TrEMBL record:
Keywords: Cytoplasm, Lyase, Schiff base. The gene is deoC. It comes from Cryobacterium algoritolerans. It catalyses: 2-deoxy-D-ribose 5-phosphate = D-glyceraldehyde 3-phosphate + acetaldehyde. This is Deoxyribose-phosphate aldolase. The lineage of its organism: Bacteria, Bacillati, Actinomycetota, Actinomycetes, Micrococcales. Its EC number is 4.1.2.4. Transmembrane segments: none annotated. Pathway: Carbohydrate degradation; 2-deoxy-D-ribose 1-phosphate degradation; D-glyceraldehyde 3-phosphate and acetaldehyde from 2-deoxy-alpha-D-ribose 1-phosphate: step 2/2.
Length: 231
């Protein structure tokens, strides 16, 4: 891959270079880190069982880990413990999944309490991103969940796990999420962001972070094939 243009390098700095497939190995994660450093992405995002990671001391690379992933149906106590352990093992950021069923049932107080439990286990300046699985929710539910996330102290609201059959990020969802949180939180678009043009559209819609597994292909202008369970 040739050197990135300043514009493309700027997009790279908004990417969480992601590997969350169940079959990922330690060697795969090492390759992910090497590629992330080469591309200049903001972070790598991995499953918590892959921590701790070995990051070169001179690398400008953050570490994110998921929590309650991918179903969100874990007890809040377990999510909080999982997040705290990930931070103890070197994570800078946590991407937690809400209880989607609670949101669909209108139990937004429970959603807020779930997020607050994780927030309490990883005090600022550690970053908390809240995955709302936007494709599975109505607009009214998206708004209510985003409001709950902000009230609970989240730093980001995030569209998708990339594993839900309802789909991943959409421009409509990103715009709605950004309009709801304003400047009280940021928006991460993830799930199905596979091309450079799609990345630009998501950023234009209000996202400030992107979850991407095929970062090299995206930044080179290519579109990788769609894989089952791809982030």
């Amino acid at each position: 891959m040739t050197a990135l243009s300043p514009e493309t390098a700027g997009v790279a700095r908004q990417i969480d270079h992601t590997l969350l497939t169940p079959e990922a190995t330690a060697a795969d994660v090492t390759a992910l880190i090497i590629e992330a450093i080469r591309l200049g992405t903001y972070s790598v995002c991995v499953s918590p069982s892959m921590l701790p990671l070995t990051i070169p001391a001179d690398a400008d690379l953050k570490v994110a880990a998921v929590c309650g992933f991918p179903s969100g149906k874990h007890h809040s106590v377990i999510k909080a413990a999982e997040a705290a352990l990930a931070i103890e093992q070197g994570a800078d950021e946590i991407d937690m999944v809400i209880d989607i069923g609670a949101a669909e049932a209108g139990r937004f107080g429970d959603v807020q309490a779930d997020i607050a439990a994780v927030r309490a286990s990883i005090p600022a300046p550690k970053v908390l991103k809240v995955i709302i699985e936007s494709a599975a929710l109505t607009d009214a539910e998206i708004i209510a969940v985003c409001q709950a996330a902000v009230a609970a102290g989240a730093d980001f609201v995030k569209t998708s796990t990339g594993f839900h059959p309802a789909g991943g990020a959409t421009v409509h969802a990103v715009r709605l999420m950004k309009r709801t949180v304003g400047d009280r939180a940021q928006v991460k678009a993830s799930g199905g962001v596979r091309s450079y043009d799609e990345a630009l559209v998501m950023l234009d819609a209000g996202a400030t972070r992107l979850g991407v597994s095929g970062s090299a292909a995206l930044l080179s202008g290519a579109t990788p094939p769609v894989l089952t369970g791809a982030y």
